[in-house]
Amino acid sequence: MSSKRISILGFGTVASGVVRILTGQSGMVSRRSGCEFDIRHVAVRDVSKPRDVELPAGVITADWKSAATDPEVEIVLELMGGTTTAREAVLAAIGAGKHVVTANKSLLSEHGDEIFSAAREAGVCVAYEAAVAGGVPIISTLQTSMTSNQIVSISAILNGTSNFILSGMLGERRSYDDVLAEAQRLGYAESDPAMDVDGTDAAQKLVLLTQLVLGKRVSLDEFPRQGIDTLDLDDMLYAQELGYRVKLLAVSKLTGGQLEMHVEPTLVREDRAIAQTDGPLNLVELEGDAVGRLVLSGAGAGQMPTASAVVADLIDVAVGRTQQSFPLLEIWNANDSLKVLPAEQIERRYYLRFSVEDRPHVIADIADILGRNEISVATIVQHEAPEVELSDDSGAVLVPLVIMTHRTTEGRLRASEAEFAKLSTVQSRYVRMPVAD
Ligand code: NAP
Ligand code: HSE
Questions:
Q1: H or E stretch including 304?
Q2: The domain 2-131: what is its CATH number?
């Protein structure tokens, strides 16, 4: 059996899982790839760090450049993360004629055009299944079984860390910090988890999916993005009371011939599969014009699920499947005629939570503002508050007031918000989330 020499850049959570599969399941991998993978180099920052997975002697190195360009190596696995050294390393590998497998969505969402074009010019390919939704085979599904469809909508949970935190806070009443620390311990979070919890990671993945199915390259600042880092348990409990779960929902869909995109904590009806997706799981709901709705779900983060996607890519490169599909991807289409729907025109229902003084006419003032902006109220929730004497100098008693609206536009809501800000009985801390029925 022939042997293919590979370099692995990085030996952290994901790369260690890849080595576990390549060494622990070498027979299965050889049967499926038609070759044996010979790990020639594993590049790390700190060669003296203790590792919990064994490597053949002499392969570990701090010299990523030599590992990426060694003339004997055919395939380079970029599993370092980040966008600086990783970009240099991937471009160096491509320049030296290597196929590249990467799990790095930050890199591809920022420098994808440059990397894909360099690969196309060099006649090599870039495989990136693990960069979107971890172990869920969404990229290969879109590139193979769904090619007979125009995808008209994607609604997805794309960040395992955020979903794990939401589940831990609501299901076990644990603090945000406590669950985030566990997500870091379990290897779900990025080395700097800021991008997990502020919505950036999910938005980067949504950009990659959108480019793959529509040929439209969208930058992160072209659509609304919010994370779970400012979310209160109170809002998750109100949502539950109303029959919803709060999920960090990433949406990309064709609306009236334009591209609607957003990543935001969203109320999802509790009977939908998305609402029932807990822990580090991801879920992608696709709508194709021929097949209709399709749902893929599985582990979106973590060592072995992510390694599963990386090794599947490696096998696809070894047997030549990627070399056939890569030159045909939608990413080459430069679909410039497709415009991103301006945020003000996005239309949906909203959940609003105000903190208001418990006085007469407060609800009427808010309802008046909504009414004048043509926003219709669907539900109001105000739990009974203790009876207090109202006196002007006693200090205001603040109570939560939750309103669910009927469908409206982001623009009308923003206009209402400018007016809420002028009400002396309404606190400036105000929560709003879209609703996906
Ligand atoms: P990680 O545990 O932090 O590992 C990163 C590895 O890269 C470490 O071994 C580190 O070396 C090495 N490295 C970093 N910068 C380097 C440099 N300049 N030169 C040489 N080596 C360098 O990260 P990870 O969780 O495995 O993630 C790797 C990639 O997979 C990222 O792009 C991430 O977004 C993506 N991903 C991760 C998951 C997940 O669940 N963790 C899921 C999907 C995708 P040292 O060990 O010496 O520090
Ligand atoms: N940090 C990412 C997440 C890993 O939590 O989803 C998978 O890309």
A1: helix 303-319
A2: 3.40.50.720
Domain 346-435 has CATH 3.30.70.260: yes
**Distances in Å between the alpha carbon of 11 and those of 17, 60, 72?**
9, 9, 21
Write out residues with Cβ below 6 Å of ligand 2: 134, 159-161, 188-190, 196, 201, 300-301
Enter the pTM of the model.
0.96
Select which of 105, 205, 216, 247 is catalytic.
205
Helix, strand, or coil (residue 400): strand
Cα 262 to averaged position of ligand 2 atoms, centre (Å): 18
CATH architecture, range 138-300? 2-Layer Sandwich (3.30)
Closest ligand 1 atom, CA of 46? 47
**How far is the centre of ligand 1, averaged over its atoms, from the C-alpha of 304 (Å)?**
14
| pLDDT tens digit sequence for 214-261 | 999 999 999 999 999 999 999 999 999 999 999 999 999 999 999 999
Annotation marks residue 205 as catalytic: yes
Do domains 138-300 and 346-435 share one topology? The answer is no
Q: Hey, is 166 helix, strand or coil?
A: helix
- The number of the ligand nearest the C-alpha atom of 7 reads 1
The residue ranges of every structural domain in the chain are 2-131, 138-300, 346-435
